[in-house]
Amino acid sequence: MPNHGRLTQKGSGGASEADRSQVLLDLRGVEKAYRTPAGDFLALKGIDLQVQRGAFVAITGKSGAGKSTLINMVTGIDRPTAGEVHVGNVAVHHLREDQVAVWRGGNVGVIFQFFQLLPMLTCAQNVMLPMDFASLYKSTRERRERALYLLEQVDIAEQANKLPSAVSGGQRQRVAIARALANDPMFLAADEPTGNLDSKTADAIFAVFAKLVSQGKTILMVTHDRDLASRTDRCLRIVDGQLVPARINKPLAQEIV
């Protein structure tokens, strides 16, 4: 596996030889029910999923099929009604609310369709914010240095001192990716990250993801874009809350230029 330090400036540590150690995301019999006036609605129906470290996995499906609910399970944003969610050696489904917030802040990078940048902060300050919340890096200077480093990695460093409103949608999404990487997360969860972008800009964002995967990051991406999904390592489809068997795509290395 490539050295994560090329991206994060932090050591990746040694890896066990056991195959099991290569599984980063492990969902076992995950169900999620929501109460409605008409009764319980089962959004996820017994999801079993394993994602290897360093994989780029796409989740596709129609609106309402359960894609975002699945993302919420692996990120700890929501809890399963039944089943188990393991990330690395952490049983996320067993964490208390205060524990899961701390765990997510240090281990998960979430990327949204509509960027979710704070408009009153500069691009660099938006990237620094997760470090501040997680009390990582000792000084404002260190946090800014890391923010600039990450913005450079996603080719947006020249916009560091601008407000989000002063840059394009594609540039804002690059800032959002840098922010998601701020605390060197174990994996990135991207929920429709190109859904608000034109096709050319979406391709550019996908190239950023491909670069991150080449440097050892694990990415789980929800998308309606079948072309982008077909270019990941592995493509899954959710139909009525159930996963359709995986398809192995062409090597992601072909995307990296």
Task: Describe the fold and architecture.
The protein is of the alpha/beta class and 257 residues long. The chain has one domain (54-79, 94-255): 3-Layer(aba) Sandwich (Rossmann fold). 32% of the residues lie in helices and 26% in strands. The chain has a six-stranded mixed sheet. Helix 7 (199-214) links the parallel strand 7 (187-191) and strand 8 (218-222). It is globular, with a radius of gyration of 18 Å. It starts with a helix and ends in a 9-residue tail after the last strand. The model is unreliable at 1-18 and 253-257 (pLDDT under 50).
Short descriptors:
globular, 8 helices, alpha/beta, six-stranded mixed beta sheet, four-stranded antiparallel beta sheet, disordered N terminus, Rossmann fold
Produce the secondary structure layout:
Layout: H1 5-8, E1 23-36, E2 39-52, E3 56-60, H2 67-75, E4 82-87, E5 90-91, H3 97-107, E6 108-111, H4 123-133, H5 140-153, H6 169-180, E7 187-191, H7 199-214, E8 218-222, H8 226-230, E9 234-239, E10 242-248
Parallel strand pairs: 3-8, 3-9, 6-7, 7-8
Antiparallel strand pairs: 1-2, 1-4, 4-5, 9-10
Helix pairs in contact: 4-5, 4-6, 5-6, 6-7
